[in-house]
Amino acid sequence: MEMYLTHEQAGFSRNYSTIDHLLTVKVLIEKTNEYHLPTTHTFTESFVNSLSLKLFIIALEAIFKKLEWKTNGININGSYLSHLKYADDIILFSQSSTDLQEMVQEMHVASERIGLQMNINKTKIMSNTGENINIKINGERLEQVEELN
To answer: If you compute the radius of gyration of the chain from its CA atoms, what whole number of angstroms results?
Structure first.
């Protein structure tokens, strides 16, 4: 299965773990705050699906390979970090709420094309900009939170 996974997916990978992604997110948030760079991100806890988790992860990889996000996300020394995944948990990163809305919409549409649906109730938005972020999926606004529980 590992041959199908990208470096953004830490679930079921020998060389990555949840701790790696948690550290990446922690450092990213600290540095964007330190350098006063805007960052907005969504945390999608899971998708609604009936596939086994391993098949789901392969399907999820197929979705992300079709997304054209080479210059989306947070620029880190010329490379862009647009997302991280751990099994069925996904974090999307963006420097603006407008870009994040586009990314969320693209991921939503790509997911539906293969029969998966984002769980809107478990998808949360965080931002360091202080602004009220208005991101919607199918007209339903995603909840903005200060921290995840």
So the answer is: 15
Q: What span, in angstroms and rounded, lies between the C-alpha atoms of 71 and 79?
A: 8
What 8-state DSSP symbol labels residue 101?
H
> How does pLDDT run across 113-131, given as a tens digit for each residue?
988 888 899 999 999 999 9
* Confidence grade of residue 17 (pLDDT, cut at 50, 70, 90): confident
Contact predicate 53/61, CB 8 Å? no
User: What residues have CB less than 8 Å from 30, skipping those under 6 apart?
Assistant: none
The residue type of 74 is I
Largest CA distance in the chain: 43
How far apart, in Å, are the Cα atoms of 16 and each of 9, 30, 39, 45, 124?
8, 21, 24, 19, 24
Taking residues 79-96, report their average pLDDT: 91
The values of phi and psi at residue 4, to 5°, are -90, -10
Q: What is the residue type of 136? A: K
* ∠ Cα 111 101 124 (to 5°): 80
How far apart are the C-alpha atoms of 83 and 72, rounded to whole Å? 9
